[in-house]
Write a structure and sequence with these properties.
By secondary structure, the chain is mostly helical. The protein has a domain of 111 residues. Helix 2 packs antiparallel against helix 3. It starts with a helix and ends in a 22-residue tail after the last helix. It comes from Streptomyces dengpaensis.
């Protein structure tokens, strides 16, 4: 609604994803919310602040000399209560404003991080058995023959030994 009044460029409508009946309810609630906020601020400006200023001015004069202890205590209580209410309001307003700014900064940082960056090539770590394989030299010659004979005893035979003795080292004796 504010974008239409200010004639700003159209942004993506966040209520588009809602069903039609919920969208109507949200738009109706936003109108009620804006009207209520406007009425509250108008009441604050026309009734509350002038009454607070008059009360505060009258109370401060009773804090000085020439008034009884009861009047001074009463004036101090009013200053503390009235000042405390306005101090809490200001603190809450500032905290909400600061939280909003922090969220905006975080969103900017998140969007900056979301930009695609070139990634370095992935380096896959070796598994433990792969690391041990790199440390031990591969079998060669007779050791390779023995390893193959142990792995597949029927297929591989040692050519320099007679056939019947080729797997004698496997037999328990």
């Amino acid at each position: 609604m504010a974008r239409r009044l200010l004639r700003r460029t159209q942004a993506v409508d966040p209520s588009r994803e809602l069903p039609v009946h919920e969208r109507r309810a949200v738009r109706g609630y936003s109108v009620v919310l804006v009207m209520g906020t406007t009425l509250c601020l108008a009441f604050l400006a026309t009734v509350t602040l002038p009454a607070d200023v008059r009360l505060f001015a009258r109370v401060v004069t009773r804090l000085g000399p020439g008034h009884s202890a009861a009047q001074r205590l009463d004036a101090a209580a009013v200053v503390i209560a009235l000042g405390g209410i306005h101090l809490l309001w200001a603190r809450t307003w500032w905290r909400n404003r600061r939280a909003r700014k922090v969220r905006e900064i975080a969103e900017v940082r998140r969007s900056a991080r979301a930009r695609p960056r070139p990634r370095p090539p992935a380096v896959h770590p070796l598994l433990p058995y792969q690391q041990s394989a790199l440390r031990t030299p591969p079998p060669s010659g007779a050791a390779m023959g023995r390893a193959l004979a142990l792995a597949c005893p029927r297929r591989f035979t040692w050519p320099h030994l007679p056939q019947e003795n080729a797997h004698s080292h496997l037999q328990k004796g």
